DNA sequence: GCGACAG
DNA sequence: ATCTTGTCGC
């Protein structure tokens, strides 16, 4: 798929945070999003290193048929991280490699599912927001742990959910994808609403806690890092 | 001031 | 994120 060239990449934390503040107004938080996407891309990055800039990485994009969950396309790229791991600036570590992986897909997917948060972020601009704006595609995040906000434990059954609230606003949802298993944290990125994102998360996570998109991308990026 | 902190 | 054994349960 085609994606515009990235701007000069920030090297300092203050500069990166300013980029987030500048991009945030570009978010579409009003659209309901695709109710029946044909294809969904899962994105994930695996690292070798201690979290510093320059760590080796492999970024994977795996496109699934939303109805059957079969893989219809995939791409993976290896390289070096341009940014250290800093909570709140996580996207600056992953975005360039993920964008390159998306560029190498034969066609644009209908939806992006990111391994991390969207609006559930200190400046309301997590990885899923960043990738959504850069690609123009509907995007949301599914994270394994909470980052900002407070929530009541959701009920014990698959599908039970509770609001993730930060600074008085609902920024996401704790969603149980399996009976009696820790919830995941869903938040909107771009061009999709929270109800739709949670519905799609449940559709993608039938037999495991994490969405099949994330599991496939995790495996592909892991294998590529080991091989390359 | 102290602790917590997506991956 | 990553480093790692055994153990419990379907």
What does this entry show, briefly?
With 228 residues, the protein is α+β, with helices and mostly antiparallel strands. It has helices at 13-23, 91-103, 127-135, 194-204, 212-227; strands spanning 39-48, 56-65, 71-80, 112-114, 139-143, 161-166, 169-175, 184-190.
Helix/strand layout:
Blueprint: H1 13-23, E1 39-48, E2 56-65, E3 71-80, H2 91-103, E4 112-114, H3 127-135, E5 139-143, E6 161-166, E7 169-175, E8 184-190, H4 194-204, H5 212-227
Parallel strand pairs: 1-4, 4-5
Antiparallel strand pairs: 1-2, 2-3, 5-8, 6-7, 7-8
Helix pairs in contact: 2-3
The chain binds two DNA strands through residues 44-51, 55, 85-88, 90-91, 93-94, 115-117, 120-122, 126-127, 141, 143-148, 185.
How would you characterize this protein structure?
By secondary structure, the protein is an alpha+beta fold. It has a single domain (33-227), classed as archaeoglobus fulgidus dsm 4304 fold (2-Layer Sandwich). The chain is built from five helices and eight strands. It has helices spanning 13-23, 91-103, 127-135, 194-204, 212-227; strands at 39-48, 56-65, 71-80, 112-114, 139-143, 161-166, 169-175, 184-190. An eight-stranded mixed sheet has the order 3-2-1-4-5-8-7-6, sandwiched between helices. Strand 4 (112-114), helix 3 (127-135) and strand 5 form a beta-alpha-beta unit. Helix 2 packs parallel to helix 3. The mean pLDDT is 97. The chain binds two DNA strands through strand 1 and helix 2.
């Amino acid at each position: 798929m085609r994606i515009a060239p990235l701007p000069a990449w920030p090297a300092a934390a203050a500069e990166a945070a300013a980029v987030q503040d500048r991009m945030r107004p570009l978010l579409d938080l009003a659209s309901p999003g695709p109710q029946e996407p044909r294809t969904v891309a899962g994105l994930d990055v695996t690292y070798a290193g201690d979290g510093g800039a320059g760590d080796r990485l492999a970024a994977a994009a795996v496109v699934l048929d939303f109805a059957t969950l079969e893989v219809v396309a995939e791409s993976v790229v290896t390289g070096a991280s341009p940014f250290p791991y800093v909570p709140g600036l996580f996207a600056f570590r992953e975005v360039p490699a993920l964008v390159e992986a998306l560029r190498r897909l034969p066609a644009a997917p209908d939806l992006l599912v990111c391994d991390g948060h969207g609006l559930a972020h200190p400046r309301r601009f997590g990885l899923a927001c960043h990738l959504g704006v850069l690609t123009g595609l509907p995007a949301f995040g599914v994270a394994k742990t909470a980052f900002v906000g407070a929530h009541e434990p959701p009920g014990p059954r698959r599908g039970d959910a509770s609001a993730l609230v930060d600074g008085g606003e609902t920024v996401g949802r704790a969603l149980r994808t399996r009976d009696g298993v820790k919830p995941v944290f869903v938040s909107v990125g771009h061009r999709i609403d929270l109800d739709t994102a949670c519905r799609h998360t449940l559709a993608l996570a039938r037999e495991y806690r994490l969405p099949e998109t994330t599991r496939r991308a995790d495996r592909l990026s892991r294998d590529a890092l080991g091989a390359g």
